[in-house]
Amino acid sequence: MTVTVRAALANWHISTSAHSEFLIFALLMQSVKKEIVMSGIRPTGFLHLGNYFGALRNFVRMQDEYPCFFMLADLHSLTTHPDTSQLKTNIHRVLAEHLACGLDPDKSALYCQSHVYETSELYLYLSTLSMVGELEKTPTFKDKVRQHPQNVNAGLLTYPVLQAADILLHRAKLVPVGKDQEQHLEMARNIVVRFHHRYSEVFPEPVAFNYGGELIKVPSLDGAGKMSKSENQYATLYLSDPDDLIRKKVMKAKTDTGPTAPNSPKPDYIENLFLLMKLVSAPDTLQKFEEDYNACTIRYGDMKKQLAEDMVRFIAPIREKAEAIQQDTEYLKKVMIQGAEKARSSAQATMKVVREAMGLNYY
Ligand code: TRP
After folding, report:
1. What is the pTM of this model?
2. For a substitution probing ligand 1, which of 62, 177, 207, 226 has the most ligand atoms within 8 Å of its CB?
3. Using one digit for the tens of pLDDT, what is the confidence trace for 8-48?
4. CATH among 3.40.50.620, 3.40.1190.20, 1.10.287.180, 1.10.1270.20 for 3-217+328-358
């Protein structure tokens, strides 16, 4: 369906720019009841393997099936990373990584949050529909208070309100996010319900959206939790890591002396190595090590060497592509402007409806 609509648009020659083509595409998709997808990633550091398998890989698929808004959440990052000296580098790098992973600025809206001023307007309106008690109870807020006791700013408290604004600004319903964001989505739904109760029906109720239901968790290399920007740096593989660093990190992963009885259950840190292998190695490679494990003949040194090489083969092309794109600042600028235009058009259309619904129209 999506492909047909795109092809039809190309044939009609009605689009004078990629921008208007996207809008018509979004409208047509809405008219055939295609829901809108919206998600964001905070540019607080470069992207890692968890971002790739948990988000980007799915975004690449979604951009062919839905009208999509993918955003770099730079305003959110100000709540925890007030020092902006690295922000430009991070934005350039993370945007380049999105593009290197296959996101196409002609297909979806790829933009920076701070370029869409309507976000801040909606954020303020929605804050009047958000209850302080509820915000204070949010687990992510409590975590951040623990992590940054000297910077418990109000933006940290209203973080989920800003996120709701990002989503509702495009009247998006489908939000591809991990489990840790469920609470924020629930808050967004509560805000929607209150808005509809107090004013009138404007927004869909946003829900978490993932293919097949099961989220892929990319485990960290130290056997503790999943890969993340803030945890142990040596346990996280970045899409920007050079080959030798990838090898070093994989070889340092925790193992033990091996199973002592056939078909034993795997300890977490060993299971994690198999999970990582499943993501980047060939199926018969994985099978060979599974068999070795079950027969108690596995040599973890060999397994990690294999995993390291397969990881290098997986990450190196993305890294090299992202590096080349990152150098091309003119192209990045073009992509950011194009994305901001698409996002702003959609935001302005929504805000018109929102102001009316709220009674903020005096003439
Ligand atoms: N809070 C999200 C995270 O930390 C990032 C984010 C910001 C987001 N705005 C969003 C995700 C809107 C989905 C939709 O991962």
Report:
1. 0.90
2. 177
3. 555 444 445 666 777 777 776 666 668 999 999 999 999 99
4. 3.40.50.620
